[in-house]
Amino acid sequence: MNGNPSPPGVVDPTAKPGAIHWEDIRLPSWLIGVIGGVGLIILWWILAATVFANVGPAGIQAIPTPPQVVESFLESGWDFYWTNFSVTLSEAGIGYLWGNGLALVLAAFVLVVPRLEGVVVQIAIITYCVPIVAIGPLVAVLLGAPPSGQPSGTAVFLAALSVFFTTVVGSLLGLKSADRASLDLISVYGGSTYTQLVKVRIIAALPAILNALQIAVPAAFLGAVLGEFFGKVEAGVGAAMVIAQVSLDAPRVWALALASGAVALAGFGLVGLVARAVAPWSRGGSR
C-alpha cells in the first residue's frame, strides 16, 4: 500500500470497502468533555492512592481519593452546602450587578464623552492591578463584620472589584467595533452621539458585552469567596473552607473546592446560554 495519503476529494483505490478512517471520526464536544473529566478523576485517584498517599501531616492525607471526597460530601449533607453556598451566591450576585453595572455605565459615558476614556481605563487598570489579598483586609476594616444573616460587605465589594476590569475593557472594545458607515449615516441625518450609541453601538457591542458578562460570573464568585476570608462571616463557602482547614479535614476542603468549581461553571454556562439567545449571530446562529 502506498504510504502517501490520497489528495483531498480523491478516493484511495487501495482502501478496503467499509474501512474506518480515524481522522474522519468526529466526537461531539460533550462526549470529549466527559472523557476528559473521567480521565482526570482516574488520574487523581491513582496519584492520591500512590504518589501523594503520605503527603501531609502525620495521620492526615492531604490529597484524598475521590471516594473519600464523595463520602465527605454525603456526610456533610445538602443542608450544609445549601446554607453556605446560598450566602456566597447572594454576595457574588450583588457584587456582580454592582461591578458590571458601573462598568457598563462608565463605558457608555466614554462613548458620549470621549475625553473620559483615559480616566475610565486608568481606573479599570488600577482595580485590576491592586492585589485582592492586599485590599481585602482594608475593606474589612472599613466595612466591619456584617450583621447576623446578612451578606458580607467585604465579599460584595471584592466580587464587584473582580468583574469591573474585564467588563469595562470588553464593553469599550465592543462599543468601538460599530460599523463606521452606519455611524456616519446617523450623523448625516442629524443624529447625536447618544443616537449612535443607542441605535448602532450597543447592538454591535452586544456580543462582546455578553462575553465579558460571562467571564465575570466565575470571577464574581471567586471574589466573594476571598472576601469571606477577610469579612469575619458566620456562614459562606470561605468560612466553611477556613473551618475545614483549621480542623485538617482535607476531604471537606476538596469537596467545597470542587463544589465551588461546579457552581462557577454552571453560572458560566447559564450566561452563555442567555448570550446565545440574546445575540445568536455572535455564535453563528440565525438572527
Overall number of structural domains: 1
Low-confidence stretches: none
* CATH fold descriptor: MetI-like fold
CATH architecture: Orthogonal Bundle
Mean pLDDT: 79
Q: Main sheet, how many strands, which sense, barrel?
A: none
CATH homologous superfamily (4th level) name:
MetI-like
Overall geometry comes to globular
Number of distinct beta strands = 0
Give me the secondary-structure category. Answer: mainly alpha
Percent of residues in helices comes to over 70%
Taken as a percent bin, the fraction of beta residues is: under 5%
Provide the gyration radius in Å.
25 Å
> How far apart, in Å, are the first and last alpha carbons?
50 Å
Question: Would you kindly provide a brief summary of this structure?
Answer:
By secondary structure, this protein is mainly α.
How do the helices and strands line up, and which of them pair or pack?
Blueprint: H1 29-49, H2 66-112, H3 117-129, H4 132-143, H5 153-175, H6 180-188, H7 193-230, H8 237-246, H9 250-278
Describe this structure in words.
This protein has 287 residues and is mainly α. Helices cover 70% and strands 0% of the residues. The protein has a single domain, classed as MetI-like (MetI-like fold, Orthogonal Bundle). The chain has helices at residues 29-49, 66-112, 117-129, 132-143, 153-175, 180-188, 193-230, 237-246, 250-278.
